[in-house]
Amino acid sequence: MATTAIWDVTDRLDRVIDYATNPQKTENLDFSSPDFRGLQNVLAYTQQDTKTEKQFYVTGINCDPTTACEQMSRTKLQFQKTDGILAFHGYQSFVPGEATPETAHAIGVKLAQELWSERFEVIVSTHLDKHHLHNHFVLNSVSFTDGKRYYDNNATYTLMRQTSDRLCREYSLYVIENPQKGKSRHYAEWKAEQEGKPTWRGLIREDVDKAISASMTFTQFIATLRKQGYEVKTGVKYMAVRPAGKERFVRLKTLGDNYTEEAIKQRILQNRAPKRPQALPEPKKKRYTIRGGASLKKVKKLTGLQALYFHYLYKMGILPKHRASNKRTHFLLREDIRHMEEITAQTKLLCTHRIENKEQLLTFRNSLEQEMAGLYDTRKSLYSRIRRCKDDEQITVYKEQIAGLSKKLSLLRKEVKLCAGILSRSEEMKQKLHQIKQEEIQQRKEEKAYEQRSRRSGPNHQYES
């Protein structure tokens, strides 16, 4: 199965792909103006060596990949159409393990040839840096044959998706037959559900289902949702809810056909003997083990980043195995269970290398980057030796050395990525924990005030509606 998408490229694309490293700039003054920087950036990103294995999976259609930016820019200058949309950036993603790099690239090239080769310059690159192989297409917005612009609309996108599906069938890849309109899901959500991991929309469905089962009326249903910490928007065209800690409301109808307001009312009516509202049970959690460090009982008192991560895991209900409290985990933390592999790897890195603060983390990351730079230089020299060498046995030795270096670089890149993830996630953790703490303080204040009112009102207060 392959999912597809396409969007326009403007001169501000560099903000979207700011993690592109060292984009190659042309020295020709005609094409160094800010008008073409977005095009340069997206071409540099899609052809990055670390993503395409030394550009082995990069193909140019009606252009040379090494000079694609110059050729596309000349087309724009020739027809005096250098303003507006510079190019279109297409995307085609495959399910992990479904296709080989060769197959994915072949499908991408055929797709581009069928759709755009008669009139446009296109770059096709297959990225191998994720668990799922995916193709990128950079399509010039101006035709080299007639100077007309590419018109991206529902019809052209539908043709792109249908062509992709047909090619996938030809290569015996899975295709979703008769997809329902408006039922598409983001790849991350689909993948998480396939792996049995929670998504934040899935958590909302779970809470709505429990609220329905505990209600006899629609009013009770809304009250139950609010007790769970949801802000509920009613009296509007589409009923919407907002979980605690989220900025945006979610329309319940987008969760599925069983979650429209009318469907929810019908489901409530079917409750002949609804369950009595009570404390919602804690969802069953998968247990994770932090390997590579000492026992929690033997380890010294944790501080800094290590303490933050372990406290976060405790609040999520992951550590320790047997918690004394049965308090329901906050929504903000429940949704992070889907990122447990990443959080576990980050925790392991902090403990293994005894990193306690941001300064130590940055120092460690810099040492990794320096080591990577040295390995890149060594690998580059080995590639040069192979080009000059005529001894097959020696070439085999060089290739084995390159393979070893590539393996080390892959591990180092993962650790650099973990460091970057810790820098961003640690701030998110602090914000979430602070928000949860403030909510708990406010809740305790309200409970205390309620108890004081109850004592002042006398013993019969508890029976008042």
Automatic annotation (TrEMBL):
Annotated stretches, region: Disordered: 434-465
Biased composition (Basic and acidic residues): 434-454
Pfam families per the UniProt record, alphabetical: Relaxase (PF03432)
MobA/VirD2-like nuclease domain: residues covered: 45-173
The protein's name: Relaxase/mobilization nuclease domain-containing protein
Provenance organism: Dehalobacterium formicoaceticum
